Amino acid sequence: MTSTLDIPLHVKYIQSLGENKDDLVYHLTAHLRMNAIYWGLTALCVMKHQDALNREEMIEFVMSCWDDEAGAFGAHPDHDAHLLSTLSAIQILIMQDALDRIDVPRVAKYILSLQQPSGVFAGDSFGEIDTRFLYCAVNALSLLGYLHELDVERTVGYIRRCRNFDGGFGAREGAESHAAHVFVCVAALAILDRLDEVDEDMLSWWLAERQVPNGGLNGRPEKLEDVCYSFWVLSAMSVLNKLEWINSEKLIAFILSAQASDVLQGTEPSLQDLEHGGISDRPGDQPDVFHTQFGVAGKSITVRLSILGYPDLEDLDPVYCMPAKLIEARGLRKGWKALPRKVSV
Amino acid sequence: MHGVKRVKYTREALAVKKERDLAKLKEYESLTGEVLARKKAKDWSQEAFDLTTKLLHINPEFYTIWNYRRNILLNGLFPQRTPAQINDLLSDDLSLTTTFLKQHPKVYWIWNHRQWCLQQVPDGPTETDPDGWRHAYWNKELFVVEKMLDADPRNFHAWPYRRYVLAHMPAKRSEQSELAYTKRKIEANFSNFSAWHQRSKVLTSMWEAGKLDKAKSLEEEFELVQNAMYTDPNDQSVWIYHRWLIGPGDNKAIVDREIASIQELLDEQPDSKWCMESLVFYKRLSLRRHGNGMTSEERARLDRECLELLTKLQTIDPDRKQRYVDLARNSPSVQ
Fold first, then answer.
1. A224 to chain B: which residues are within 8 Å by CB?
2. pLDDT by residue (tens digit) across B195-205?
3. Residues with Cβ < 8 Å from A35, sequence gap 6 or more?
4. Which residues numbered 31-70 in B keep a CB inside 8 Å of some CB on A?
5. What is the pTM assigned to this prediction?
6. Which ipTM did the prediction report?
């Protein structure tokens, strides 16, 4: 039973994701494609295999998702522009060193136009609001070099109103604290140099309490652990410099055991899957497309292991969720701390 | 999909499944192609609308199609209709989303469309009763969201939606009744952090508006929480809520009383991590807030007790060991 990260296997898996064109599920998730590609590319960068996917093809795909009516990117060709896919597009192009392909002022204008009077951002012209979109906007504007055009006070004011009695943050004003929203609010505040808005002791405590007895992390009190959520929790803790407050060894073991497996004899599934290379949210569960395309390829394993100091991986910037080297080169690195990178397993 | 167990297919079953999937795929691609082509051509017809219904039944997460559907309503179907007819169209779409939500209770796009429909409800049925339609819808919405919360009391789409409905209902429910609702949810399951969270919001609002005597209300909350603590001392929801009730710890009598109460529970449950964690927090809070009024012996005692508890916690809750080590390092007596 292997309990190490099989990098070649995961690289192959990510490469295979774009080849599932006969798979109905692949098509049913077209609305997640841009984001899935971003996560796949990020994972490859972290595994030091950026070239495993063709650069020109990827750039072409991104550009084919340009929605000229809106001045931003959709998730897939002919899909409407949205802030989520626009951020992913920008991140992909930066990782591929191709940001010059887009009309930066126009995209910045689209992003800024989505800010609401309350300070939060809508995801698109139909007006759904969520702190996730606030983070997308702040992250994207920062990467594009347009952060100076943002009404920072209004933005921070909204985040402040999302802060709950437990130190955490919700999707909007009044909403319950949830790991994903804790991450987006903390990361947005980090970009805006306003971490003073965070009750660090309280929130770090809340985050540390996400670790459940089997070593995994959940997203809210009394919920089951989930591979998705542990990235948000880890990134937030990295920004707050409190990664030592959880048991990282146990978490690493849990993460590795959740790699989907089919033990050749067909008995109880447990460890690394030598046929599949996918990851499910809990050991034994079907590696579904949401977790594979959306979660697994990127944030489920390599990205989290990077923050946890697993050997032979590139550093990931948890604020921007991109390779740390790139963010540093743009002068955008903030004061976060990952666990020191181990020399060997 | 979370929590779906893996299935091992036989080779034959796999082949049959593959063929069926390919047929479904062809159908899906052809339908998608047609709908997107009509969208590009700005087709706002009934036919186009019906095609979006068909497509959304297969894939309710296809956000671009929801957008198109709304644009068809706005540009194509609404303009030629009376308010009553518009109302009917919206009523149908609300029924559609109810059906979808039963199978996909956590899909953002469905909740969004529902909200959008409610925002479009025209004045009516008459000039003298312009909110009549709205009243009916909002009441129904509350009913729908309560059903969703009965099915899954932690559904974090449903709770914000509930707050949205309560805030926008023309005939507002009282905050008192919302307080009662959260109590019902909590008493059904002390683990329901979402309900505790909602309760914290309603109470804060009522206290700030002077609608409740805060001191009396706090006492009732402490009683509720104590009940929960004793029933299930391992549930973190209760302890987090308790910490909020204590707040900055201004009232020394209350802090001392709660410390004593938790100590009693700890005596019964000597391995209770939450009792120990909370005692450390409250004793230190007391030291910071009321230390000046204490004797140096009392301060030293409290500090020592905290250090002892923190040492025990490192063994009882080893996953979070470093936090307890860090907290011990910050003790005044260690400096």
1. 3
2. 999 999 999 99
3. A75, A84, A85, A88, A294
4. 32, 36, 39-40, 58-59, 61-64, 67, 70
5. 0.91
6. 0.90
